[in-house]
Amino acid sequence: MLIGVLALQGAFIEHEKMLRSLGVDTVQVRLPGQLDKLDGLVIPGGESTTMGKLMNDFGLFEPIREKAENGLPVLGTCAGMIMMAREIAGSSQPRLGLMDISVERNAFGRQVDSFEADINIEAIGEEPFRAVFIRAPYILGVDGNVQILARHGDKIVAARQGRFMVLAFHPELTRDNRLHKYFLENMNI
Ligand code: GLN
């Protein structure tokens, strides 16, 4: 099994480490040709406007969209979640728009730029997941066949739509690999 990690910017190395700890091969994706032969793609956290600009420069938007529409499972975390959203509140920045969700960037406010919280995610078991939020977005609303996987308070912070999955936080910065495992096992990879 080969999982690509978009490696233009942001926390991609940590995703690779976590995926490898689960026994899959990974490849850093910077060029469209590197999307061939992938069984899944991870879009990491970072800064979504910078990532969007680089994706444009590297000609990645259309190839990723095309692969995704033809069956490639995609996991987006934090800035990666923003890239996956159809709608970004108050912004026209470039995005893949693969999921029927609307998101708000930097949505937890300045006074809590970064924080950790225990999140209940039924899909991965009873033990709460220690989620690391860094200038995190959250999901304002979902549409279509989107399944909500987790909330923090009243805010939606994890969701899935078929073979696409998004997390507002950084699962790769913990030692808990259950969400990566869930992605590998449940997206028909
Ligand atoms: N605030 C960032 C953005 O809007 C996302 C933060 C992150 O990925 N840790 O792109």
UniProtKB/TrEMBL annotation:
GO terms for cellular component: cytosol; glutaminase complex. InterPro entries: Class_I_gatase-like (IPR029062), PdxT/SNO (IPR002161), PdxT/SNO_CS (IPR021196). The keyword Transferase applies. The keyword Hydrolase applies. It catalyses: L-glutamine + H2O = L-glutamate + NH4(+); aldehydo-D-ribose 5-phosphate + D-glyceraldehyde 3-phosphate + L-glutamine = pyridoxal 5'-phosphate + L-glutamate + phosphate + 3 H2O + H(+). PANTHER family: PYRIDOXAL 5'-PHOSPHATE SYNTHASE SUBUNIT SNO, PYRIDOXAL 5'-PHOSPHATE SYNTHASE SUBUNIT SNO1-RELATED. Catalyzes the hydrolysis of glutamine to glutamate and ammonia as part of the biosynthesis of pyridoxal 5'-phosphate. The resulting ammonia molecule is channeled to the active site of PdxS. This is Pyridoxal 5'-phosphate synthase subunit PdxT. It comes from Desulfocucumis palustris. The lineage of its organism: Bacteria, Bacillati, Bacillota, Clostridia, Eubacteriales. The gene is pdxT.
